[in-house]
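Ligand-bound model needed. pyridoxal-5'-phosphate.
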Amino acid sequence: MPVPDDNDMPAILGGPPVFPDGPPAWPAVDPRVCAVLREVATDGSWGRYHGGNCERFAAAFREYLGCEHVELCASGTAAIELALRGLKVTAGREVILAAYDYRAAFRTVQAIGARPVLVDVDPRNCAIDVAALEAAMTDDAAAIIVSHLHGGMADMSRVMEVAERRGVPVIEDACQATGAAIAGRRAGTLGTLGVFSFGGSKLLTAGRGGAVAGHSAREFQRMRLYAFRGNDAYPLSELQAAVLLPQLAQLDERNDCRARRVGLLTEGRHPLPGLNRFENSVADAEPAWYKVGLRYDSAALDGLSRAAFCRAMRADGVACDEGFGAVHRTVSRSRYRSTGLFPGADEAHETVVQIHHPILLQDPSTIAEVRRAVCRVAAYAAEIRAREKGSATE
Ligand SMILES: *Cc1c(COP(=O)(O)O)cnc(C)c1O
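Prediction:
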């Protein structure tokens, strides 16, 4: 039993917060972005869409990714829709995706009238279970959506092998993994089409925005035909493209820094109590860290619930949240075709914790403080749990 000492208590029990000012802001003030903003304010491009900035960013992103085609658009969700349209996925056809995934993918499949087919994930890294994917394929399958989530990476070479054998195209969702790579090839270029998000919290941000990447002109012609209604219905603006350019130039450096900080966070001399790191099962994977996915083990923290653990971490100023709600746990069974049970997605639904990326660009000493916050919460887990119980019955 630790001797109660106010200074050593987690903030949720009244101790001094590890980060009194809360988590670092995102996006951070960036002089290069400030310079660009002044420029677009004076040259008038802030008021336009489609112009030099979009062209320059699309070209730079194409080169960065190493692919033939990039179509910029309004959001990652719009990118998923354009990709489905580009692949001629029509109403009534099936789209296979993971039961644990970003909700927008499922909703977009529904929005175009196609039928979602859910398959399980590997709870150790939230990646789609390739054997389950293969078993779910029927002649109705028009596309597969595969996401890289929370720093875990899907096994794209096995996914593509299965998909190509059946002639089904793959949309690789790299919205959380911009700049990640497998065997030197960028995430988002390993599927038939790749989708990216430039939403406000993402690694490259323009507040909103997205892109589709790919290798064949045919799909991009279809996407443009669909999106162009006398004007572009899903545009990324000149202003957005302008702020993305300097961020792209820094992305690799920042992703390297984030990866080193994740190493410090999860591979310290002592393992983090109650938090198990993701296990990447893909060879030569270089993940990008939008959220640091961790697997919470409540038993190691005196039965403290995951929600209470996240609340305690947030009280200490760490941006820590529960993972996604699995689709099959939150939508009616009639809205998708099921392929059996989803034990992996259930486990992810119940155990994933994610720490938001801005902390990963801070000094190593900051990561040591995050570890301290976790250890402090763990040391007082029973007390936090008792307090939560008390307040629940008040
Ligand atoms: C953020 C995200 C998207 C797209 O989000 P938008 O907010 O529409 O840009 C898609 N998939 C995943 C996995 C995401 O994290």
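The pocket of pyridoxal-5'-phosphate is lined by residues 75-77, 102, 104, 147, 149, 173, 175-176, 197, 199, 210 (CB under 6 Å).
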